[in-house]
Amino acid sequence: NVTDKDILQDQSTVEDVVSNGLGPRGQRYSPLDKINTNTVKDMRPVWSFSFGGEKQRGQESQPMVKDGVMYVTASYSRVFAVDTKTGDELWQYDARLPDGIMPCCDVINRGVALYDDLVIFGTLDAKLVALDAKTGKVKWKKTVADYKEGYSITAAPMIVNGKVITGVSGGEFGIVGKAEAYDAKTGKILWSRPTVEGHMGYIWKDGKKVENGISGGKPGQTWPGDLWKSGGAATWLGGTYDPDTNSVFIGTGNPAPWNSHMRPGDNLFSSSRLAIDPDTGKIKWHFQTTPHDGWDYDGVNELISFDYKDGGKTVKAAATADRNGFMYVLNRTNGDFIRGFPFVDEITWAKGLDKNGRPIYNEEMRPGNPSASEDGKKGSSVHAVPAFLGGKNWMPMAFSQDTGLFYVPSNEWGMDIWNEPTAYKKGAAYLGAGFTIKPLTDDHIGVLRAMDPKTGKEVWRYQNFSPLWGGVLATAGNLVFIGTPEGYLKGFDAKTGEVKYQFNTGSGIVGSPITWEQDGEQFISVVSGWGGAVPLWGGEVAKRIKHLNQGGSIWTFKLPKS
Ligand SMILES: O=C(O)c1cc(C(=O)O)c2c(n1)C(=O)C(=O)c1cc(C(=O)O)[nH]c1-2
Ligand SMILES: [Ca+2]
């Protein structure tokens, strides 16, 4: 059974992985070092497990491991329990999804949460489902939001002090983003916090729903007219938790619609990081990376807590690498901007950041207003960099406690983007924009970067032909692992970037690797199965990599017994 303490200590208790991010802060760093720069060359796969069937779509899951069982999600809201030693299936759960689900970006899922004897995950029809960890039978099920309005859940839920906290997807359909907390054991709702200014939050006291303050104070401050009522800001990547400040950090996606001329103002709390009190759902502070977003630069990217020394003083910081191409280091106690810097080679939509971390816009890079065009149907097109799929998208970076560096999976691409008129209609796409993503070079799009959060300097890079779309793992073995769409699990020297290992898993990797120890041996697992947003939305990039094959399997590796 998984306890709150297990989750809080997940990073140091190497025999299991019971949180998404290998620890609540999401550092994706393991103190294990048996697999290291000297030994990794001998690492071998020990088993592979197929998710089977016709459902081979994008596999973005991070597996969890507890007491010799691996819990992993697969496309179409499926969960598998697998024996960590043999790869034998123990049980499988298939959510019966209705025909009308509307995920924007493939039928993916990013993983489960574990609590007590439960395996909890979110579905593409926007439900939370808790399964019995032993049998896979449903223990409780809750509807978080109405999928017919365009809501879905793709993120892994998180557990904080017995509560399961989830976000929602649907920013491309004009939903209203929110974070919600449920009692992990019973599924009873505890609080609901909308992430668009003007919407009421709620808390449930003794089963009674009580108003808990309007997000942002009141409607209409940073949105014109009624646009806040369908304002997007989906919390589609879930969050991280920092026990030091008792804050849940959740990012929010694009404001809806994409056509920014329809919504003059900053459009809070879209494209922001929010620090939320896990006990009440109150927003303690917010930091908006792209105010008045006009490029779909969703700011959902994970905010990772870390400490560093500045002239003998410990700084309680947190870092995030945004879809908009800038990386930010914030003071995690209050959200103050410490520093920011580009982590991609080219950014055209902004000239830089001001002293508060607000972008200095290149106004000619904002796609034009269709109302100002001759026929009112299409605004002027611009070539903006990064593309809307981001300098970095959902795929989580890692922080090494040994090197003090962040390992950022990033992509170099641009887009032609223009605006079109649109109006909100329940359950229909609400973009008001057209776009084509284009590569910037012939030989690479993906770049894994080692970034120094104190200086903003890139320490090393690895360039990949295809866009990188999977998460990163850093270990005390001086190794950094990432999977590629070409199918490789690759291991790098954390200090130099030298490739130390590679193995082709047979389909593109868009999942996040984990490591754990069992009977004194170190294991590494990663899910393989190409998909996600790139083949669907990638324009000319999608064409360039259309030869990549789909799949759906887990691969597990270890060193030979000497
Ligand atoms: O605004 C949203 O609600 C929303 C949700 C999701 C999602 O749930 O995966 C993505 C996006 N936006 C998005 O903009 C995006 O680029 C994206 C990529 C992916 C993916 O898993 O490959 N999901 C999403
Ligand atoms: Ca989005």
UniProtKB/TrEMBL annotation:
Domain of life according to the entry: Bacteria
Annotated binding of pyrroloquinoline quinone, by residue: E60, R110, T154, N393, W394
Gene3D superfamilies hit by this protein: Quinoprotein alcohol dehydrogenase-like superfamily (2.140.10.10)
GO MF term set: calcium ion binding; heme binding; oxidoreductase activity, acting on CH-OH group of donors; pyrroloquinoline quinone binding
Family: Belongs to the bacterial PQQ dehydrogenase family.
Organism: Amphritea atlantica
Cellular compartments per GO CC: membrane
Disulfide bonds: C104-C105
Binding sites annotated in the UniProt record for Ca(2+): E172, N254, D296
Active-site residues, record numbering mapped to chain: D296 (proton acceptor)
Keywords recorded for this protein, A-Z: Calcium, Disulfide bond, Metal-binding, Oxidoreductase, PQQ, Signal
Domain Pyrrolo-quinoline quinone repeat: from-to ranges: 24-337, 446-514
Cofactor: Ca(2+); pyrroloquinoline quinone
Co-factor: note: Binds 1 Ca(2+) ion per subunit.
KW Oxidoreductase (keyword) present: yes
InterPro entries documented for this protein: ADHI (IPR034119), PQQ_b-propeller_rpt (IPR018391), PQQ_MeOH/EtOH_DH (IPR017512), PQQ_rpt_dom (IPR002372), Quinoprotein_ADH-like_sf (IPR011047)
CDD domains registered for this protein in UniProt: PQQ_ADH_I
PANTHER family: QUINOPROTEIN ALCOHOL DEHYDROGENASE (CYTOCHROME C), QUINOPROTEIN ETHANOL DEHYDROGENASE
Chain positions covered by the region annotation Disordered: 360-379
Name the UniProt record assigns to this protein: Alcohol dehydrogenase (Cytochrome c)
